[in-house]
């Protein structure tokens, strides 16, 4: 099992999760985060820290696409280990549907 970030992180990008990760397996894009599925040790401490409920175990239904999404971008983006402010307007974006299709950016974030 591994944990992955899903589309509710897009345009919110809370980073509470990165501070608690013991193996630094979070990577930062311009408007979302991902978890490297091969680096995640399945401890689960990040899941309850996410205010947007965007972190899910890969054992839930329909998570295969998110595992591959997280794998792809974790190999392209810089690692992030410190908490930053969420994105401007995150309150309005939290919980919106179809954020992957509407808002996702492939651009990397700043990282640490």
From TrEMBL:
<dbReference type="GO" id="GO:0051538">
    <property type="term" value="F:3 iron, 4 sulfur cluster binding"/>
</dbReference>
<dbReference type="GO" id="GO:0051539">
    <property type="term" value="F:4 iron, 4 sulfur cluster binding"/>
</dbReference>
<keyword id="KW-0249">Electron transport</keyword>
<feature type="domain" description="4Fe-4S ferredoxin-type">
    <location>
        <begin position="31"/>
        <end position="60"/>
    </location>
</feature>
<feature type="region of interest" description="Disordered">
    <location>
        <begin position="84"/>
        <end position="112"/>
    </location>
</feature>
<keyword id="KW-0813">Transport</keyword>
<keyword id="KW-0411">Iron-sulfur</keyword>
<keyword id="KW-0408">Iron</keyword>
<dbReference type="InterPro" id="IPR054829">
    <property type="entry name" value="FdxA"/>
</dbReference>
<dbReference type="Pfam" id="PF11953">
    <property type="entry name" value="DUF3470"/>
</dbReference>
<protein>
    <recommendedName>
        <fullName>Ferredoxin</fullName>
    </recommendedName>
</protein>
<dbReference type="InterPro" id="IPR017900">
    <property type="entry name" value="4Fe4S_Fe_S_CS"/>
</dbReference>
<keyword id="KW-0004">4Fe-4S</keyword>
<dbReference type="GO" id="GO:0046872">
    <property type="term" value="F:metal ion binding"/>
</dbReference>
<keyword id="KW-0003">3Fe-4S</keyword>
<comment type="function">
    <text>Ferredoxins are iron-sulfur proteins that transfer electrons in a wide variety of metabolic reactions.</text>
</comment>
<feature type="domain" description="4Fe-4S ferredoxin-type">
    <location>
        <begin position="1"/>
        <end position="30"/>
    </location>
</feature>
<dbReference type="InterPro" id="IPR050294">
    <property type="entry name" value="RnfB_subfamily"/>
</dbReference>
<dbReference type="InterPro" id="IPR022569">
    <property type="entry name" value="Fd_C"/>
</dbReference>
<dbReference type="InterPro" id="IPR000813">
    <property type="entry name" value="7Fe_ferredoxin"/>
</dbReference>
<keyword id="KW-0677">Repeat</keyword>
<dbReference type="InterPro" id="IPR017896">
    <property type="entry name" value="4Fe4S_Fe-S-bd"/>
</dbReference>
<dbReference type="Pfam" id="PF00037">
    <property type="entry name" value="Fer4"/>
</dbReference>
<keyword id="KW-0479">Metal-binding</keyword>
<dbReference type="GO" id="GO:0009055">
    <property type="term" value="F:electron transfer activity"/>
</dbReference>
